[in-house]
């Protein structure tokens, strides 16, 4: 059972995909600090460290000594900054001690690589299967042209672009930064307005008729944004563009991740029946997210006929994960190779903000089945 970390409805959409793959999860919307896409790398790393530490503390307080509670950064901005830093830190990444994390980058890049190695993805909403496919003679020798839509922070980091270029040196990459997309979705802006925003960004793609692959590298884009982009490709006659589905690729990879990082180390994954939805930012934010989430399910079912995998309404609960600005400053000043745990301990002494309350237990909440 993973902890899915994002800043808003992106975490909800991640939970849907995992639920469709029969994985229950704990969902954390860090709404108090949304969105990560316009924050500095130092802030995102610090906030990621705070959240991961909180759930490692949860694991210690709630789980048995041999149980692991994996943390999954569903947010791409958090993945390219926090996850990439934390996974190289010996305290934060220690499978033997039950401290493990997963990000969004490798599953998506692997999906792209498998696809281009003569496999084609059959696209079904919230599922992913691979089918052998022999490329026709006209397709052989064509270099891929992949379009990425993402937050300013994710695109500016160049992490996705660099990994793709290393694996596919001849690939053309069009990386389009999309300011305020995630905020617009979390605020419930109308589909008509969202479509116009997408069309403006789509107009920045050079030679869209020649695009071979598209990926929305923000979990907020999973539903309506990605659909609008694919619709625009079809409108201009590009019906062959392959939509790389990021969240399904993560869910598809999760079992292997657990085998490698949990089972292999003679540990068990923490599980309970159902899914739990948490948010920072107080009770008012929790009520607002609950309202928007359930409206989202209703609107999408009317538009697509697809039903939520959760029985009944989902309900968000408020928790407090303190934030220490002193830690952000320390990370900004220090070399990226320095261990983070000593910085956190020092920041706690200076700021006095890390005296956390004991984490709540799942039995205190109503779970979404």
Structure in words:
44% of the residues lie in helices and 15% in strands. It contains 13 helices and 14 strands. The protein has helices spanning 9-20, 41-62, 76-86, 105-116, 152-157, 159-167, 181-186, 191-202, 224-235, 246-261, 283-304, 325-333, 340-351; strands at residues 3-6, 26-29, 67-68, 71-73, 101-102, 119-124, 127-132, 145-150, 172-177, 213-216, 242-243, 268-269, 276-279, 316-318. Helix 2 packs across helix 12 and helix 8 (191-202) crosses helix 9 (224-235). The two termini are 14 Å apart. 45% of the residues are buried.
List keywords for this structure.
13 helices, six-stranded parallel beta sheet, 2 domains, 369 residues, alpha/beta, single chain, Rossmann fold, 15% strand
Helix-strand makeup class: alpha/beta
Tally of alpha and pi helices: 13
Tally of DSSP β-strands: 14
Share of residues in strands: 5-15%
- The sequence of SSEs as H and E is EHEHEEHEHEEEHHEHHEHEHEEHEHH
Termini separation comes to 14 Å
Determine the mean pLDDT: 80
CATH architectural type of the largest domain: 3-Layer(aba) Sandwich
Q: Order of strands side by side in the largest beta sheet?
A: 5-4-1-2-13-14
| CATH fold category name of the largest domain | Rossmann fold
Oligomer: single chain
- CATH class call of the largest domain: Alpha Beta
Query: What shape does the CA trace take?
Result: globular
Compute the number of structural domains.
Answer: 2
Characterize the main sheet. 6 strands, parallel
Please compute the radius of gyration using only Cα atoms: 20 Å
């Amino acid at each position: 059972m993973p902890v899915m970390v994002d800043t808003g409805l992106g975490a909800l959409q991640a939970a849907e995909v995992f639920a469709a793959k029969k994985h229950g999860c704990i969902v954390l919307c860090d709404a108090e600090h949304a969105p990560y896409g316009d924050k500095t790398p130092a802030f995102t790393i610090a906030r990621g460290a705070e959240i991961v530490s909180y759930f490692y503390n949860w694991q210690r307080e709630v789980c048995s000594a041999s149980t692991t509670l994996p943390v999954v950064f569903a947010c791409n901005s958090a993945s390219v900054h926090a996850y990439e830093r934390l996974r190289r830190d010996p305290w934060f990444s220690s499978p033997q001690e039950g401290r493990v994390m997963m990000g969004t980058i490798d599953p998506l890049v692997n999906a792209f690589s498998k696809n281009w190695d003569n496999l084609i993805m059959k696209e079904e909403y919230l599922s992913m299967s691979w089918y052998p496919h022999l490329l026709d003679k006209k397709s052989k020798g064509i270099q891929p042209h992949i379009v990425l839509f993402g937050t300013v922070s994710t695109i500016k980091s160049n992490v996705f672009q660099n990994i793709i270029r290393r694996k596919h040196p001849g690939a053309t990459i069009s990386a389009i930064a999309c300011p305020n997309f995630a905020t617009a979705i979390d605020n419930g802006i109308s589909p008509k307005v969202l479509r116009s925003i997408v069309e403006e960004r789509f107009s920045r793609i050079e030679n869209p008729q020649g695009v071979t692959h598209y990926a929305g590298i923000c979990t907020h884009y999973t539903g309506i944004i990605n659909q609008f982009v694919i619709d625009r490709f079809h409108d201009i006659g590009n019906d062959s563009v392959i939509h790389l589905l990021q969240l399904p690729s993560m869910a598809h990879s999760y079992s292997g991740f657990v085998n490698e990082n949990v089972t292999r180390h003679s540990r068990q994954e923490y599980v309970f029946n159902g899914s739990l939805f948490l948010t920072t930012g107080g009770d008012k934010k929790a009520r607002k997210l609950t309202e928007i989430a359930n409206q989202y399910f209703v609107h999408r079912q009317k538009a697509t006929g697809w039903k939520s995998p959760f029985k009944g309404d989902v309900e968000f609960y408020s928790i407090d994960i303190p934030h220490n600005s002193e830690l952000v400053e320390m990370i900004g000043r220090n070399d990226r190779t320095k261990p983070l745990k000593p910085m956190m301990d020092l920041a706690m002494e200076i700021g006095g903000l890390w005296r956390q309350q004991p984490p709540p237990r799942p039995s205190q909440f109503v779970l979404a089945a």
